[in-house]
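One chain shown below:
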Amino acid sequence: MQSQQSHRKDEHVFLAEKAFDQESHAGFDQVRFIHTALPEMAVSEVTLTPELFDWQWPFYINAMTGGSKQTGERNAQLGRIAAATGLAIATGSQSVALADHSLAETFQVMRHNNPDGFILGNLGAGKTWLMPRMPLR
């Protein structure tokens, strides 16, 4: 039987698919940039490569997946996409796998499909209960 937390992961994907509109531009078609020239800079001096963790691009794939069979399959797909494009990728919150170890594979497939890529692990806020309580000195 699927846990409530694991079921929630499937609901996230269901709601995202339901709200997906191929004609939508997420409002980006309404964005207008104001040109502000930088005459003191040469185009050859501009780089979009981040100086953090040797990322190849200044953005990454942010995932909300993992924690169920369906979302594990999505993580495998996203891992392959990240590997093919060189993009960094983030997992969905792995706290569900800490509660149910059988779900760990739904997150590990991202690494299996992207063995050399940069993967951010997401645990979620407020998970201090996972850390052993240490006495204050």
Summary: The chain has a mean pLDDT of 81. The two ends are 44 Å apart (CA to CA). The chain is about 35% helix and 10% strand.
